[in-house]
Specification:
The chain is mainly β. It is 0% helix and 53% strand. Strands 2, 4, 5, 6, 9, 10 and 11 form a seven-stranded mixed β-sheet that branches. A hairpin with a 6-residue loop joins strand 4 and strand 5.
């Protein structure tokens, strides 16, 4: 199983980025998909998740700014991040189900 995350980069505060996570070898349609992040010196935390049925869940810190989307036909999950803040700086990881992790993609938000 491979989860390939991409889309990270350097952006100014107030800007936007869209992260993508493409899965191979598993169809994501049956899985809850999630985006997590880990900032330096901090624990990994859930940012957003979407169930197989489409129910979404967001961390309080990103509500109203981030949107998680799944495209089962493309076997891809996205994280649209708007109004980015310096405190959003972290390595972002995607996860399928309870055990499949992708490699991280670094998001850096400058003030």
């Amino acid at each position: 199983v491979q989860l390939q995350a991409s889309g990270g980069g350097l952006v100014q505060a107030g800007g936007s980025l869209r992260l993508s996570c493409v899965a191979s070898r598993i169809p994501i349609r049956g899985y809850t998909m999630g985006w997590y992040r880990q900032a330096p010196g901090k624990q990994r935390e859930l940012v957003a998740s979407v169930t197989a049925g489409g129910t979404t869940n967001y961390a309080e810190s990103v509500k109203g700014r981030f949107t998680i989307l799944r495209d089962n036909a493309k076997n891809t999950v996205y994280l649209q991040m708007n109004s980015l803040k310096p405190e959003d700086t972290a390595v972002y990881y995607c996860k399928a189900g309870t055990k499949y992790w992708g490699q991280g993609t670094l998001v850096t938000v400058s003030s």
